[in-house]
Amino acid sequence: ESTASPSAVLAAINRRLLGRSSGGFTTCLVLHIDPDGAVIAANAGHIPPFVNGKEMPVESGLPLGLVKDCKCSETAFQLEPEDRLTLMTDGVVEARNPQGDLFGFERAAAIAESSAHAIAEAAKAFGQEDDIAVLCLIRQTAGKEPVTQIEPAGWSQASA
């Protein structure tokens, strides 16, 4: 299948997951980002994106692999030049400290403008139980030289 529609991508993935997930499910966020900064997002139970440290109000549908007819709404928003888009997995917000407190959305939002590595390390230091993945993108101003240094991936596997 070939489409630029994030909700259609999620529906196609859902069709492939049905009956294969052994009672489990998968969360997923799909973004289509145009060169002019226009973003279309569809969310299947995943952590919403952050722009400049602010959680974007992206409507969330059910996770994938649960029901046959996956219906995820699409939400549009705009990235302006130099805006920072941060995506993270639930391993960040669901990290727990020894007292059982969650890292949570408030802490995640407070550090969402940090590097992917710094966000992942903060969640790990708080108390990692799940895998952690963080991706940060900065929309560049037209005509600006591309970034030649890529920050290390913010990914960490849960301990066994």
Please provide the ordered H/E string of secondary-structure elements: HEEEEEEEHHHEE
Low-confidence stretches: none
**Radius of gyration from CA coordinates:** 16 Å
Query: What do the pLDDT scores average to?
Result: 85
Counting DSSP E segments of at least 2 residues, the number of strands comes to: 9
Structural class, by secondary structure, is alpha+beta
Question: Largest sheet at a glance?
Answer: 5 strands, antiparallel
Share of helix, binned: 10-25%
Give the spatial strand order of the biggest sheet: 4-3-7-8-9
Which percent band covers the strand fraction?
15-25%
Global shape: flat
Provide a descriptive summary of the structure in words.
- By secondary structure, this protein is of the alpha+beta class.
- Helix content is 22%, strand content 24%.
- The chain contains four helices and nine strands; from the N terminus they run αβββββββαααββ.
- The protein has helices spanning 6-17, 90-93, 104-110, 116-127; strands at residues 28-33, 38-44, 50-51, 54-55, 60-61, 74-78, 84-88, 132-138, 154-156.
- The chain has a five-stranded antiparallel beta sheet with strand order 4-3-7-8-9. Strands 1, 2, 5 and 6 form a four-stranded mixed beta sheet that branches.
- The protein is flat and about 35 Å long.
- The model has no long low-confidence stretch (mean pLDDT 85).
